[in-house]
Amino acid sequence: MTTYSTEQINAAMTAPVEMVTGPRTSKVTAINRMATTAAIADAAKARKTRLAAEKKEAKEQRKLDRIAKKAQKADKANKRKTKVVKPMTAVANAAADAAKTRRKSLVAQKKTHNAFKKELKTTRRNLMTDWKEAAATKKELDRAVALIFKSEEKRNKKAAKAAKKLAKEEAAAAKKAAKEAKATTPKRAKLTDEQKLLNKAKRAYETEKNRRAKWEREFQTKFNGVVSIQYQPWAEEPEFLEDGFVC
Question: Rounded to a whole number, what is the largest CA-CA distance in the chain?
Answer without folding.
Answer: 175
